[in-house]
C-alpha cells in the first residue's frame, strides 16, 4: 500500500504541468477604441495588436490555449460613447473583461460602472493622477501603460539630482480631452515639495509669449506640454530674450508623438530655423524609453502590415508601435496570466476583484520587454531624457534614462553635466515656496536698504557739516511684480467639471 | 345637413373642456433623495412635499386628476448611489420621470444617462454653471430652483448699480460636494467683465486670516461662501485691521441655511460679540427672496406636521419649507402641465424631449408664488439683499430685491445708499487685473521704515547740532499689487476632476 501511495504521488506530480494548463474558459472581451483615425490609439492601430496577442495566447500547446477570447470591438468617442454602449448592452450578458477606453473622462465613467459590476478593466490610457485612487470607484482598473504621475518621477529624479527647486508648468488645454493638462497635472501632483507654478494656454487663443516669459523669470525650469509649433514659438521668443543662455532649463514632455521631438524638431524651412536650432540647444525632451528585443521586431513588422492592410495611411508613423499598441497587446497577456492563476485557485471568471488582484504587484514579459506592475495596479515606467548634443547639426541623443521599477536615474555617455547646470543663478532660493512673492525677505531688504540709506546720509552730513542747506529727494518706483495668469487655470478648473466630466 | 354639421360642431365645442381633461396615464416617477438627514433636501424633508403635490394633482375633478403617479423613492448618497441604482434597475421598465438628485456630481451622472434614454429629469439642485449647457448630455434637465448663475445676477446688478469693479471670491471647499465652490463659480462665470480673484479655503485647515486679508487689500468687494463660524472669524479679523470702515464691501451668500444669517448671526455669547456686531455692520447677505401667499401657509403647516410625524427633529428649522421642498413640489406641477400639453398634442409619455420642451420658457403658479422658467429650462430667481440696519441692536433687514424674471434691482425703504458707498477709495483700479504680488507693498513698507529711521536720526542730529537747516522731500510712487493664492484653486481644479467627478 505505501508503494501504491508513492506511485500515486509520482503520477500526480507527473500530471501537474498538464493539469495546470488544463483550464478552458470562454472570455467575453469588450474593447473600446475610437473608429476615428486621428487618435494614436484608434481601432485601426491598436486592434491588430490585440488580435496578435489573442493568436499567440491561443496557439496550440500554450499555457493559455484553453482560454477562448470572444473579442467585441466597440467605438469610443472620447466623450460618453463607451459609457452609453456599455450600459445599453449591460442588460444582457455582461463582458468578462473590458479593454480601454483611453480618454480620461470617458474612462472614468466606464471604470466607475465596471468597478460597480466587478468587471476588470485594463487600459493603456486613463493616465491621469485621479485614477491612482483605487479604493472605491476605480477599484477594477489596471493601467498597463505608465501614468502621468509615473512620468513625473523622471522630473523629481532630475530635480533632486541637479538640485533644482522651482518650475513653471506651461501647457495647452483643449478643455475636452485635456491630454496636456493631465500630463502636467501628474508633475504637479508628484512635485508638491517643489515650488511649482502653472500656466495654461487656450487652444483658440494666440500665444502671448510676452506674458509667458514674464512668468518664467522667477523659476529655474520650464516644463512644457504643447503642440510642436507652439513649443517652437516659445523657444524662439525665449531665445530672442536671451533666456536660452543656460540660466533656465526648458523641457517638453512628448510621450506619444515620436515625430514632434528629437532631430529636426526645430526645423520648419523658414527664416527662423537657425535661431530655433540654437534655442533648441536649451530644450530637452522627456519621452518613453524605447526598448528593442528580437520578438518585438516581428511584432512591429506584423503591426505595420496590419495597418497598411487596413488602408490607413494617415500619418508618417502610423504603422509604428506606440505605447498604446504595445500596452493593449500586453493587457491580453496580463489578463490571461491573472485569470489562469485565479481559476487555479478555484475562482470563476466572474470574480473580477480576484482576477484584478492577480494582475497587480507582478512582473511579466511583455512584447517589448519586461512589464512591471506596482502594488496599486499601475505600470512602472521607464523614460528617456533627450538633449541636443550637437548644436551645429541640431541633433538629439538620449542622455539619461529613468527606470521607474527601482527609481534609478542613469546617466549615459552622451550626458554633459554642463548642459544641465543653471548659469548665472543664486544658489539659494527663497525658503518658503508658497509665498511666491518672498514677502519677509523683501521687507527685510527694504529695512536694511532704508537703514543703510539713513546711515549714509548721516555720514555724508557729518563729513560736510558746515552751514549747508540739504535737499533730499527720493523717488521709489514699484518693485517688480510677479504676474500670474492664473485666471485661465481657474476658469478651466471650473469649466472642466461638467464640460467634459 | 348644414344643420346637422353645425350641431356637431357645437357638440364638439361643448365637449372640449371635458376632452382636454380626459387624459389618463400612469407615470412612474423615480425620486432620488438622501436618507441621510443631514441634508436640507433629505428624504424626510422633501418627500412630504412631493406627496402633497401628488395629492393635489390627483384630487377629484382637477385638470390633472387622470395622471396617476407611481412614486418610487430611492436613496441618493451624493456620490454615485443614484447612478448605480438607476442603471441597475434600467434593464426593466425605465421610469417616465426622474426627480433629483440634488448634488452636482451625482446629478451630472444621472442626467447624462437620463438624457441618453430620453427621460425628463427635474431637480431643485444641479445648480452648478456647467449644467447650463443643455445641448448634449444635459438635454433632459429642467432646473426648478434658481441656479448659482441666476444668483450671481444679483451681484452683477449690484456691481453695475454701485459701479464696483473688483471682487475677491472667498469660499471653503470640501472637495466632495463642493457647494460653496459651485456657488461662487456661478459668480465667477457671470462676472467675466469684472476684475475677479478667488481664494479657496480647505475644510481641514485652520483659517489663515492674515493671508486672506492680504488678498483683500486691492479689491473693493469680498464675496464669501463659508460656514457661519468662519464668516465670523474673517469679519472679526477684518474689523481688527479696520477694514470694516466702509472702504470694503463684504457679502456672504447663504441660500439654504436660514439660521446662519440675519439677526443675531454675529452672536456667540463670547467676548467677541460686541466686535462681531460692529464688524457685521459691513456684512451684507444675499439670499433667496421669500414670498408669502395664503396657499403657502397651509402647505407650510402640512410640511411641518409631516416632518414631525416622521420623528425627525434634527435641526431648528427642519420643519420649515426651504428651496428644495418648494422646488420638488413645483416639479410635480410643472411635469403635469407639460405632460398634459404633450399628450393633447398626440405625444406619448415616453417622449421625454417633447415633454421637457413644454416645461421650458413658461410661467406657472407654484406653491409659494409664480415660477418662471427661462428658455433654457432654468428657473429665474428672485433674491434679497439683507444688511444690518440697526448697528446698536445688530438687526438685519431686507434692503433690496433682485427679480430675475425681468432683471430689475429694487431698492426698499430700509435701503441706505451711504452703506453701499465705498469710502476712501481711488475711483480708478489698476488696469491689469492679473498682476499678482505683495512684493512691492512689503518692500515699500520696509523702505519707508528704513527711511523714517534715517530721517529720525537726521532730525536728532539737527536738534543737537542746531546750526543746520535740513529739507527732506520725498515722493513715493508704486503700483498696487495683487497677491493671489491661486495654488489652492489650481490644486483643487486638478484634484476635483476625479476625486468627485
From TrEMBL, chains A, B:
It is a single-pass type I membrane protein. PROSITE patterns: ANF_RECEPTORS. It is found in: Membrane. One of its GO terms (biological process) is signal transduction. GO terms for cellular component: membrane. One of its GO terms (molecular function) is peptide hormone binding. Coiled coil: none annotated. The keyword Disulfide bond does not apply. The chain crosses the membrane at residues 439-464. Residues 46-389 form the Receptor ligand binding region domain. Keywords: Glycoprotein, Membrane, Receptor, Signal, Transmembrane, Transmembrane helix. SUPFAM superfamilies: Periplasmic binding protein-like I (SSF53822). Residues 1-20 form the signal peptide. Gene3D superfamilies: 3.40.50.2300. This is Receptor ligand binding region domain-containing protein. The lineage of its organism: Eukaryota, Metazoa, Chordata, Craniata, Vertebrata.
